[in-house]
Amino acid sequence: MVKKAVVLVSGGLDSATVLAQARAAGYECYALAFDYGQRHRAELVAAKRVAESGGAAAFKIINLDLSSIGGSALTDMNIDVPDAGASGIPITYVPARNTVFLSIALGWAEVLNANDIFIGVNAVDYSGYPDCRPAFIEAFETLANVATKAGVEGNGMHIHTPLMALSKADIVKAGTQLGVDYAQTVSCYQANDKGEACGRCDSCYLRREGFEQAGIIDPTRYS
């Protein structure tokens, strides 16, 4: 029997790696992206590229409008994206984003009769977002198993986070070994319509450091 999994694909480095890992583990992958009003819309084009080249069985974009509630530099054009190095939880944090994304992924997983969801959250080289930590994932998996027909009937739902404890360099190495083409990905919080990165934001900094520490050429295109 083919194992099915829903894989959250943003178009960035981490989710491209996770898709490759899920495929390597034998899953038939259903890639899910979100048009949530983000300023870096080039990532949606990248998400489609990543899903297609990564061998996803299907690719779906869900339309949400998180810009209607704002509160983040990624969804409110009146808030500037800060350069890397700010302390605390940065203004690029999108309130409840991963909770919303995983909830919809959970619904699609039930429809597909899939018991597995993959997400590329990381708690080592990351921006300090609260919904990227192990405690959040553990709590959401508990919720998933009391909130779904599958969970209640004993067909446990599982949230996989294979990147959680890896450095960005280790992620780059892992993806490279699996043949991920990182030139297809867009990580920048304010990438232009061509997918070119700013080189200044926190995401650009972490990505650049990852390639440098891995000793692998960085294919990122900068504006």
TrEMBL record:
The pathway that the record names for this protein is:
Purine metabolism; 7-cyano-7-deazaguanine biosynthesis
Gene Ontology molecular function: any one: ligase activity, forming carbon-nitrogen bonds
E.C. designation(s)? 6.3.4.20
Q: What is this protein's gene name?
A: queC
Name one process (GO BP) from the record: tRNA queuosine(34) biosynthetic process
Entry's family note: Belongs to the QueC family.
Cofactor(s) it depends on: Zn(2+)
Q: Name one Pfam family in it.
A: QueC
UniProt keyword annotations, A-Z: ATP-binding, Ligase, Metal-binding, Nucleotide-binding, Queuosine biosynthesis, Zinc
* InterPro entries per record: QueC, Rossmann-like_a/b/a_fold
Please tell me whether the keyword DNA-binding is annotated for this protein.
no
- List positions binding ATP: 9-19
Where does this protein hold Zn(2+)? 188, 198, 201, 204
Query: According to its UniProt record, which reaction does this protein catalyse?
Result: 7-carboxy-7-carbaguanine + NH4(+) + 2 ATP = 7-cyano-7-carbaguanine + 2 AMP + 2 diphosphate + 2 H(+)
Superkingdom of the organism of origin? Bacteria
The molecule here is called 7-cyano-7-deazaguanine synthase
Its job: Catalyzes the ATP-dependent conversion of 7-carboxy-7-deazaguanine (CDG) to 7-cyano-7-deazaguanine (preQ(0)).
The cofactor remark states: Binds 1 zinc ion per subunit.
